[in-house]
Design a protein that fits this description.
About 60% of the residues lie in helices and about 10% in strands. The chain has about 100 residues and is mainly alpha-helical. It has a two-stranded antiparallel sheet.
């Protein structure tokens, strides 16, 4: 939630998150374990390299997007991941609580 808020000044909807996670799972970049979305182990090094180096948050996002676009990922399966409205509300509440702590 925090990254989306900082980058776009918007909190993603359940539909947006569902589509994004489905695409990332479908291409093998993200895996689902115990109802959590995790960066696939075999992609961790490449993602770290994509965001490594100098620059702030925005340049790292740009580098990661360039990596994703140039990597030529092909869908592996037709994943359908669902993020519910209650999932988004819970994540947003957690995000707000973290902000209040700071």
């Amino acid at each position: 939630m925090g990254a989306a808020d900082v980058i776009n000044h918007a909190i993603p909807t359940a539909g947006e998150l569902s589509r994004a996670f489905s695409r990332l799972v479908d291409c093998g970049i993200v895996q689902v374990e115990n109802d959590r979305f995790l960066l696939a182990r075999n992609r961790q090094h490449a993602v770290k390299e994509a965001v490594a180096g100098k620059g702030g948050l925005f340049s790292k996002v740009d580098n990661c997007l360039k990596w994703l676009q140039g990597a030529g990922f092909e869908p592996l399966l037709l994943a359908t991941e669902t993020v519910s409205d209650s999932d988004v509300r819970a994540a947003y509440a957690s995000y707000c609580a973290l902000l209040k702590e700071r």
